[in-house]
Specification:
- The chain is mainly α and 221 residues long.
- The protein has a domain of 102 residues.
- A three-stranded mixed β-sheet has the order 1-3-2, covered by helices on one side.
- Helix 2 packs across helix 4 and helix 5 packs antiparallel against helix 8.
- The N terminus is likely disordered.
- Keywords: Signal.
- This is Peptidase.
């Protein structure tokens, strides 16, 4: 039975699947990320929809963020995907909701950048290092992933400070050169936040992430 407290979030699901038709896994992931989603919708007023893929493709990740017609699309691709929860294989069952919450916060970091019109933009005055044109897309994506990872950690520090070390350690494992390479190799930014003390607690969530992100830009190749 779906708890009433989660119905507003479940009803964000697209016409591909109504709340009553969501799978157990989809409900579990949305429930784990419900605090982040409520924050994004109610406090940030982000234009956010939840979309459920009726059939995942072989290359789909379980959770992703897109942007279409001025709205963020949080896409769940879990149906027919036997590897949907592989990313949680080394996580204790009791801690899986926390890691899912961090992943949802990561995607909301992407949504915020889209909504601000800042996607693939760098701070004013930032000087790019010379690079090959072919690497520009990879570099730009890696920077966005770094920003979103910092948003996830800032969220955990704000809401679950006693669990920060656990989540930060897990994220570093996920972002190691294998399997994460290229556009998802964000260790430059993760190393800037080994503890929650790296974030300025008096600032809004995204400003906390942005301060460290700017430092990482100077180190990113």
């Amino acid at each position: 039975m779906i708890k009433r407290a989660f119905l507003p979030l479940l009803l964000l699901a697209s016409s591909l699947a109504s709340a009553a038709e969501l799978t157990e896994m989809e409900i579990r992931w949305i429930k784990a990320g419900s605090a982040v989603l409520a924050y994004a919708k109610q406090e940030l007023k982000l234009p956010l929809d939840i979309t459920v893929q009726p059939q995942a493709r072989p290359t789909d990740v379980p959770l992703a963020l897109g942007y279409d017609n001025g709205r963020c699309k949080l896409v769940l691709s879990m149906r027919g995907n036997p590897n949907a929860e592989d990313i949680l294989d080394n996580v204790a069952e009791a801690q899986r909701p926390l890691m899912i919450e961090a992943m949802v916060a990561h995607e909301i970091g992407h949504c915020w950048r889209y909504a601000q019109g800042s996607w693939h933009a760098v701070p004013a005055g930032f000087e790019e290092r010379p690079s090959q044109p072919a690497s520009h897309a990879l570099r730009d994506t890696r920077r966005e992933e770094g920003f979103a990872d910092l948003v996830a950690l800032a969220w955990i520090q704000q809401r679950h400070p006693d669990q920060y070390a656990t989540v930060a350690s897990w994220m570093q494992q996920v972002r190691q050169p294998s399997p994460a390479t290229g556009s998802h190799s964000t260790l430059t930014w993760l190393h800037l936040a080994p503890t929650g003390a790296a974030f300025a607690s008096g600032l809004p969530l995204f400003e906390q992430a942005d301060r460290l992100w700017r430092q990482g830009l100077l180190q990113d190749e």
